[in-house]
Amino acid sequence: MTADEREALLLASFAVRSAGAVRRHAEPLHRYRSAFQRDRDRIVHSAAFRRLAQKTQVFTGDGHGYHRTRLTHTMEVASIARTLARALRLNEDLVEALALLHDIGHPPFGHAGEDVLDAKLEGVGGFNHNAQALRIVERLEQRYPNFPGLNLTTDVLDGQRRRAAGGKRHGPGATLEAQVVEAADSIAYNAHDADDALEIGLLEFKDLLDAELWASAAEAVDHRHSALDTHQRRRAVVHELLDVQVGDLLNATQRRLTEAGFDSPDDARAAPPVVGVSAAMQVRKRQLEALLFERVYRHPRLLERRDQVKQTLGNAFDELVRKHDMLPEPYASVAQDEGAARGVADILANLTDDAVLSIKRFDHGAEHGRDFLDV
């Protein structure tokens, strides 16, 4: 069975088909992989994707390795997104490609790193991790002899461009597949940031009971299980938190799809977003997010660490701008075309947390520095 035949059999009328997918640089069709399967594979095999394993999600420097990295968060988002896509009969390959791409532009040290680069590039376009993902897959990755970047389909690139523009691009709206990835991202980070905060000790279990969504999940777990230890109970609550949000989203979205009566992907693009949780669940999610913001993301330990890494990254930026003649390709070309600051931002955004912390090794000589920057 060909990819086209499989999609015709399995997908809803409003799902995006891979047949007819367009790339900037024309390529022959693959004999057994669809266009979106190839996109997914190109993202997974990219150097930028591998580096997500050593980039901060929220927590850094805690040593024991339990908490999420940017890579594990990405894989969890992709897992939830595929579950949603299959239940809604959307294109799972497109959804997975979008999910695996969505955070590939994050710099080291998470949002703290993004804040530093954005400030350093003030007046010359700033820095946004969603836009950076496009720079990576359209220019900076050098894996193929016939074109720069990964030459992904316009369906995948357009979904990422909408993220970079905050979902406000002119023209048709987002595909249902892109909407699924946005929803999966929100579901994943709420549950997993709470889990990591508990493991690291920034919160106690009882603190989260102030959020109705967490409290109701805990109540459901306690009703089913009477003798769980602390760790088992926490993990069961996290699982319940994911499951209840996914179930609510599927029910609410199926209802909206029935009411909308879409007959094609174009119908879905032309309409307001329909993929999302119910209004009641959205209120509960926002309450949990507010709690996490106040008690986790603004925790003194976290803020102190953020200040430290921001200073380190800022110093590295200034050092590399002074020595931008050391930049390897394609960053040297970026520096020539768009200025040294942008070339330096591109290379720093591609480095891992540990690589930035080792930037002091530039003091050991220019040749060593060039090797170190060969990313």
From TrEMBL:
<dbReference type="GO" id="GO:0008832">
    <property type="term" value="F:dGTPase activity"/>
</dbReference>
<keyword id="KW-0378">Hydrolase</keyword>
<dbReference type="InterPro" id="IPR026875">
    <property type="entry name" value="PHydrolase_assoc_dom"/>
</dbReference>
<dbReference type="Pfam" id="PF13286">
    <property type="entry name" value="HD_assoc"/>
</dbReference>
<protein>
    <recommendedName>
        <fullName>Deoxyguanosinetriphosphate triphosphohydrolase-like protein</fullName>
    </recommendedName>
</protein>
<dbReference type="InterPro" id="IPR023023">
    <property type="entry name" value="dNTPase_2"/>
</dbReference>
<dbReference type="InterPro" id="IPR050135">
    <property type="entry name" value="dGTPase-like"/>
</dbReference>
<dbReference type="InterPro" id="IPR006675">
    <property type="entry name" value="HDIG_dom"/>
</dbReference>
<comment type="similarity">
    <text>Belongs to the dGTPase family. Type 2 subfamily.</text>
</comment>
<dbReference type="InterPro" id="IPR003607">
    <property type="entry name" value="HD/PDEase_dom"/>
</dbReference>
<dbReference type="InterPro" id="IPR006674">
    <property type="entry name" value="HD_domain"/>
</dbReference>
<dbReference type="InterPro" id="IPR006261">
    <property type="entry name" value="dGTPase"/>
</dbReference>
<feature type="domain" description="HD">
    <location>
        <begin position="70"/>
        <end position="190"/>
    </location>
</feature>
<dbReference type="Pfam" id="PF01966">
    <property type="entry name" value="HD"/>
</dbReference>
<dbReference type="GO" id="GO:0006203">
    <property type="term" value="P:dGTP catabolic process"/>
</dbReference>
